[in-house]
Amino acid sequence: MYASLAPYLPQGAVHNAIAIDVKEDESVFGIIDRYHVPRESAHLVLINGLYVEPADRESPILKEGDVLALWPPVAGG
Fold first, then answer.
1. Cβ atoms within 10 Å of 39's Cβ, excluding its own
2. What total of structural domains would you count in the chain?
3. Which of 8, 11, 29, 51 has its CA at a distance of 20 to 30 angstroms from the CA of residue 21?
4. Is 21 within a domain?
5. Beta-ladder partners of 68
6. What are the phi and psi torsion angles at 68 (to 5°)?
7. In a domain, 76, yes or no
8. For residue range 28-64, what is the model confidence (pLDDT) as tens digits?
Protein backbone atom coordinates (compact mmCIF):
# COMPACT_ATOMS: atom_id res chain seq x y z
CA MET A 1 0.00 0.00 0.00
CA TYR A 2 1.44 3.30 -1.07
CA ALA A 3 1.03 7.03 -0.45
CA SER A 4 -2.02 7.80 1.67
CA LEU A 5 -2.82 4.07 2.01
CA ALA A 6 0.38 3.34 3.97
CA PRO A 7 -1.28 3.96 7.37
CA TYR A 8 -3.52 0.93 6.72
CA LEU A 9 -0.51 -1.40 6.75
CA PRO A 10 -0.09 -3.37 9.98
CA GLN A 11 2.91 -2.87 12.23
CA GLY A 12 6.02 -4.54 10.92
CA ALA A 13 5.53 -3.50 7.30
CA VAL A 14 8.83 -2.82 5.54
CA HIS A 15 9.03 -0.59 2.47
CA ASN A 16 5.21 -0.44 2.25
CA ALA A 17 4.97 -4.23 2.06
CA ILE A 18 3.89 -7.23 4.10
CA ALA A 19 3.60 -10.93 3.38
CA ILE A 20 0.06 -12.24 3.83
CA ASP A 21 -1.78 -15.51 3.53
CA VAL A 22 -4.63 -15.40 1.04
CA LYS A 23 -7.57 -17.78 1.25
CA GLU A 24 -8.22 -19.79 -1.90
CA ASP A 25 -11.51 -18.00 -2.56
CA GLU A 26 -10.46 -14.53 -1.37
CA SER A 27 -10.79 -11.63 -3.80
CA VAL A 28 -8.75 -8.46 -4.05
CA PHE A 29 -11.68 -6.66 -2.42
CA GLY A 30 -11.56 -9.25 0.38
CA ILE A 31 -7.96 -8.27 1.12
CA ILE A 32 -8.76 -4.57 0.85
CA ASP A 33 -11.64 -5.07 3.28
CA ARG A 34 -9.47 -7.15 5.64
CA TYR A 35 -7.18 -4.16 6.17
CA HIS A 36 -10.10 -1.71 6.43
CA VAL A 37 -9.03 0.24 3.36
CA PRO A 38 -12.02 2.09 1.87
CA ARG A 39 -12.57 0.50 -1.55
CA GLU A 40 -12.79 3.87 -3.26
CA SER A 41 -9.37 4.75 -1.80
CA ALA A 42 -7.70 1.75 -3.46
CA HIS A 43 -8.04 3.28 -6.89
CA LEU A 44 -5.06 1.77 -8.68
CA VAL A 45 -4.77 -1.98 -8.11
CA LEU A 46 -1.90 -3.97 -9.61
CA ILE A 47 -1.05 -7.66 -9.45
CA ASN A 48 2.54 -8.33 -10.45
CA GLY A 49 2.64 -4.87 -12.02
CA LEU A 50 -0.48 -5.37 -14.17
CA TYR A 51 -3.60 -3.27 -13.73
CA VAL A 52 -6.66 -5.05 -12.32
CA GLU A 53 -9.97 -3.77 -13.67
CA PRO A 54 -12.56 -2.92 -10.99
CA ALA A 55 -14.88 -5.72 -12.18
CA ASP A 56 -12.08 -8.28 -11.64
CA ARG A 57 -11.47 -7.21 -8.04
CA GLU A 58 -14.47 -9.29 -6.89
CA SER A 59 -12.97 -12.57 -8.14
CA PRO A 60 -10.38 -14.78 -6.41
CA ILE A 61 -7.57 -14.15 -8.93
CA LEU A 62 -4.50 -14.12 -6.68
CA LYS A 63 -2.04 -17.01 -6.74
CA GLU A 64 0.83 -17.93 -4.46
CA GLY A 65 3.76 -15.59 -4.96
CA ASP A 66 1.70 -12.79 -6.51
CA VAL A 67 2.44 -9.20 -5.52
CA LEU A 68 -0.57 -6.99 -4.89
CA ALA A 69 -0.01 -3.22 -4.94
CA LEU A 70 -2.62 -0.63 -3.98
CA TRP A 71 -2.43 3.08 -4.74
CA PRO A 72 -4.89 5.87 -3.93
CA PRO A 73 -6.32 8.14 -6.61
CA VAL A 74 -3.55 10.40 -7.86
CA ALA A 75 -3.66 13.84 -9.40
CA GLY A 76 -0.99 15.78 -11.10
CA GLY A 77 -0.46 19.17 -12.45
1. 13
2. 1
3. 51
4. yes
5. 47
6. -100, 130
7. no
8. 999 999 999 999 999 999 999 999 999 999 999 999 9
